């Protein structure tokens, strides 16, 4: 059963809302190219929408009342937004959760070197990428350098029109006979993703590596840190440039990091759009490290969400360990992550009846996983029926899909981790073309329907 394209139903009011949402989203993408930047943007927006810090509320020790709005940003790389509901949290809460890390290339801890009068940064790619897609592109560096005294220096190079950009080179076609015989996974090796950042030696110097010395001088003058400070830096290499409207009809957006910032942005807009005090407490969650297995202190496998849940129960005067366990098990969640959009250019990779199409609305994946559903959450039929009713009652365009042909591949999300609490979880997201490429493609209609769907879920689940 094919679903109707959402564009067919929009009146002038809906189109105006859709375009305004798309403008805000492009701005979010442009200013949130790392998980830290996304978290900072979310905190800034939360404060403007009347949210207060959970940590400050804990220190104040005052009992929270229904309608209270709180935010928490674990290590500045993940985000949780809460609105306290009328019912006790023991009854469960409604959660929309996405991740804000994206495939990229990271700078190593000892990265800087000179070779043949060119200066490079050595790198280590992050997440699942096709390495050959990252060469000969204009690239930017985003991140932080932290000195031993704790001084944190924010670094952004390559985004301002006056900035230089950076690049990873490729072998010219004239000398590529051997390279062109390699498998795609081997055309560019991980250790060949070396970023060119300079090539001008200092004049009148006895320095053996004069070009590197020149770069270090520029870094010292502009950012005031030394080469040794790169030992405690987190610098991410991302495509340089802004997200753009795509298509002569401006129906799509081309940008870096749709996976999974499109879902994160949609759920954030959804919780900000809520009016009044919800029946159940609601949560908008941004996790880190999903692209490498949801590990580490800011990945979904960490306990910050469970800890925040416990703190909120205590601040509402209703905490004990048993009630915490009940509250988590009684919660309902949409694991908001992107799905593979059907691409006619590569039709053989999909099973058309169970594929997500651009423009047909927010997508639900009952299960993800690989081949025999390995690593899948696989939501139950009862919960799927409940979510369908919420979407239909709110007149949200939605579709269902699998992540490609059964024996071909698959993927995972944070759904299975949250399901460990015995809560109902299902994957829900936006269809993407060229997923995990430096530049990905989404439909504005799917962004709009995702926001509407997430709002309906938070209010009615």
Structural overview:
This protein has 461 residues and is α/β, with parallel strands linked by helices. It folds into 2 domains: 302 residues, Zn peptidases (Aminopeptidase); 136 residues, Roll (Aminopeptidase i, Domain 2), CATH 2.30.250. The protein is built from 11 helices and 22 strands. The protein has a 9-stranded mixed beta sheet with strand order 1-2-3-13-4-14-20-16-18. It has a 6-stranded antiparallel beta sheet with strand order 8-7-10-5-6-9. It has a 3-stranded antiparallel beta sheet with strand order 11-12-22. Strand 1, helix 3 and strand 2 form a beta-alpha-beta unit. It is globular and about 75 Å long. The protein starts with 11 loop residues before the first helix and ends with a helix.
Brief digest:
The chain has 461 residues and is an alpha/beta fold. It contains eleven helices and 22 strands.
Which properties best describe this structure?
single chain; 11 helices; globular; 461 residues; six-stranded antiparallel sheet; Aminopeptidase i, Domain 2; alpha/beta; nine-stranded mixed sheet; Aminopeptidase
